[in-house]
Amino acid sequence: MSADFAEKSTQGAHHFVGSVSLNLGRMSFSLARVIKSAEFIIWTQF
Predict the structure, then answer these.
(1) What pLDDT is stored for residue 3 in this prediction?
(2) How far apart are CA 40 and CA 37, in angstroms?
(3) What is the rounded CA–CA span in Å between residue 10 and residue 17?
(4) For residue 3, which of 20, 26, 36, 38 sits 20 to 30 Å off, Cα-Cα?
(5) How many structural domains compose the chain?
C-alpha cells in the first residue's frame, strides 16, 4: 500500500514539475517575443 502510494505521489510530482517547466518555457518564449516586437517598434520609431 505505502509503496503504491509513494509511486503515485512521485508520478504526480513529476507531472507537476513537467507542467510547471512547460508553462515557464511558454512564458519565457512569449516574453521574448514581446521584447523582440518592442525592440522592433522602438527601432522603427526612432
Answers:
(1) 85
(2) 5
(3) 11
(4) 20
(5) 1
Q: Which domain holds residue 37?
A: 1-46
Instruction: For residues 18 and 31, give the distance between their C-alpha atoms in angstroms, rounded to a whole number.
Output: 20
pLDDT computed for residue 1 by the predictor: 63
Beta strands in 1-46 (DSSP E): none
Q: Write down the residue that cell numbers 526612432 correspond to.
A: 46
The stretch 6-22 carries a mean pLDDT of 90
SS3 26: helix
Could you tell me how many residues make up the chain? 46
The residues near 14 (Cβ < 8 Å, ≥ 6 apart) are none
